[in-house]
Amino acid sequence: MGVTRKHNGSSSGSAVAVSANIVPLSFGTETDTSIIGPASINGVVGIKPTVGLISRAGVIPISKSMDTVGSFGRTVADAVHGLNAIVGIDERDAMTCSSSRPQRKDYPNHVTTSASLKGARFGLPKKRCWEFVARDIRESALKVLEAIQEAGADIVEVDFPSADDRIPADGNWDWTYGKASESEFSVVKVEAYNGINSYLSELPGSGMKTLENVIAYNQDNNGTEGAKPGDHPAFPTGQDNFQQIARSCGEETDTYYQALNHTQHKSRTEGIDAALKDHKTGKDFDALILFDRKGAGQQLAAQAVPCGAYESDD
Question: Is the pTM of the predicted complex or chain greater than 0.70?
């Protein structure tokens, strides 16, 4: 085992446990890439469900817009059975009660074989996605694409129209990318402040009631909690994210709403939805395929919360 290699993402422990055959099934949370990233790096199947399909009640929150819970398994079937076990309406999470979130309990019935690929059509996003796939990964990826085509599917190169706006020039994941009114982090830090404070306020028997309490504790115990850069190797930048979140004070300002609208529009209408359009048939592709080690496609999917997720949506 390469102990110096990153396992990639905040739910990496769940992915590693499955990959190491410690458990057959595990669960993780994702705000942006924390399920799909570790699944990719550790060679397991990860399912990042649509926000609102599964309750987030009891999960330490980061973003009400993007947080979700998903499953890891050694096979697609295992991960799907895990998904099936946790899907459902929960009054503690209003997202799960939305009419735009049809709740199903038959996902395992849709697990199929390669025979279902016959006649399917897939888009392969190229700009800042496929073009940045590393050589060693590309060699394996081409074998996968060839197998899909041999099973009777078509693969067509496409692009995200918003690639320049939402994906950094090097293709790397970056939730601070763009100016404040266009940055994903402008949304996350506001929602994290409010969500963390709400979560902490409901914890019984704990003196930690606010994010500021957590920051102060880290500063008082910097040797183990890594409050400042250099304090602890596990926290190389200290608690800079906590500090930026605290400075937002959870205020849903014009900048917050501008960033929320911008990221959703660019990731949805000018992102995934646009790339899914099959201009040859006039229909949508069955899916998009990404070999997404850098996380660009995952980041677009995280930001593209579907319509109907908010009461204010039309």
Answer: yes
CA distance 79 to 232: 35
Q: Which residues contact 215 (CB under 8 A, 6 or more apart)?
A: 227, 239, 242, 243, 246
Token pair in block for residue 71? 């499953």
Using pLDDT thresholds of 50, 70 and 90, give the confidence band for residue 3: low
User: Three-state DSSP class for 47?
Assistant: strand
- The residues that bridge with 124 in the sheet, in sequence order, are 157
**Residue 91 · residue 60 · CB < 8 Å:** no
Report in angstroms the alpha-carbon separations of 221 from 211, 228, 252.
Answer: 15, 11, 32
User: At 294, which helix (H) or strand (E)?
Assistant: none
Measuring CA to CA, which residue among 80, 87, 83 is closest to residue 110? 80
How high does pLDDT run on average in the chain? 90
Radius of gyration of the CA atoms of the chain, in A: 20
3-state secondary structure of 29: strand
Q: What is the dihedral of CA 246, 251, 254, 255, to 10 degrees?
A: 10
Alpha helices in 76-134 (DSSP H): 76-86
Residue 68 above 70 pLDDT? yes
**For residues 288, 150, 45 and 116, what is the CA-based torsion angle, rounded to 10 degrees?**
80
Q: Is the pLDDT of residue 309 over 70?
A: no
Q: Do 68 and 60 form a contact (C-beta atoms < 8 A)? A: no
- For the segment 108-123, the average pLDDT, to the nearest whole number, is 95
* Alpha carbon of residue 227 to chain centroid: 26
Structure tokens at 102: 């049809």
Residue 245, helix vs strand vs coil: helix
The count of other CB atoms within 10 Å of the CB of residue 126 is: 16
The rounded distance, in Å, linking the Cα atoms of 13 and 5 is: 13
